[in-house]
Design brief:
Elements: H1 4-10, H2 14-23, E1 28-30, E2 42-44, H3 49-77, E3 81-86, H4 87-98, E4 105-109, H5 111-118, H6 128-131, E5 136-140, H7 151-156, E6 157-161, E7 170-175, E8 178-183, E9 189-194, H8 196-212, E10 214-215
Parallel strand pairs: 4-5, 5-6
Antiparallel strand pairs: 1-2, 3-9, 4-7, 6-10, 7-8, 8-9
Length: about 220
């Protein structure tokens, strides 16, 4: 049986393999009988079972760092994507994406001004989230509309008002690893950004507004 290949796959160099195979049948011998250039006086070939111990140790080392290696791999896999939309059709596309999956969502902005945009969209655009039973935490400028008083909306929504958002020029939505936003005045432009770090950063911004806002009294 050729022992060189498996020993090389194990990680030994050609020189180490040669020395090991030479020493193994001889036990403990004088250094001069093996190699005059080595800086020790004698060698004892390690017991073959030691290889299994070394393999176990290597396995433990790899298992110890495996979660971090997987984390690095996932970070590399995470894609960043930016999509830009225009017009009423683009805003409808954005809202459809925000509420496509049932997950906790967060949004804030100048809601009263956004109503001027939403009224040009299909009726279901304003009801997508409620129809799909998607929970949300919302911070907007003080606004009252019939939708807020419905039992289902109240059940799914934590609503707070912040007067300073009345002049906020956009509505911003945070959901999963995505952030979506659209302008509420001027040219209608919207964007969806898929990036974990950006989503986390915008969640911090949301939390700041949330802490300043007061629970809606409707």
């Amino acid at each position: 049986m050729d022992l060189v290949v498996p020993l090389k796959e194990y990680g030994l160099t050609d020189k180490e393999i040669g020395v090991y195979l030479e020493l193994l049948p001889l036990g403990t011998i004088n250094l001069q009988e093996i190699a005059k250039r080595l800086e020790v006086t004698c060698f004892t070939a390690t017991e073959p079972e030691k290889f299994l111990d070394n393999l176990d140790e290597k396995k433990r080392l790899i298992e110890g760092i495996l979660p971090k290696l997987k984390e690095l791999q996932e970070d590399q896999k995470q894609s960043s994507n930016v999509q830009i939309y225009e017009g009423f059709k683009g805003i409808f596309t954005i809202l459809s994406d925000v509420f496509k999956i049932k997950q906790q969502t967060y949004y804030f902005g100048g809601y009263k001004k956004s109503l001027d945009i939403l009224k040009h969209l299909p009726d279901q655009a304003r009801l997508i989230r409620v129809d799909r039973n998607i929970p949300a935490k919302v911070v907007i400028d003080p606004t009252d509309e019939p939708l807020f008083h419905t039992p289902k909306y109240k059940k799914l929504t934590e609503l707070r008002f912040l007067p300073s958002l009345e002049d906020f020029p956009a509505m911003i939505f945070i959901y999963g690893n995505k952030v979506a936003m659209f302008t509420v005045r001027g040219d209608l432009i919207g964007v969806i950004i898929e990036n974990k770090q950006f989503s986390e950063a915008m969640k911090i911004v949301f939390d700041m507004y949330w802490s300043q806002a007061k629970s809606a009294k409707l």
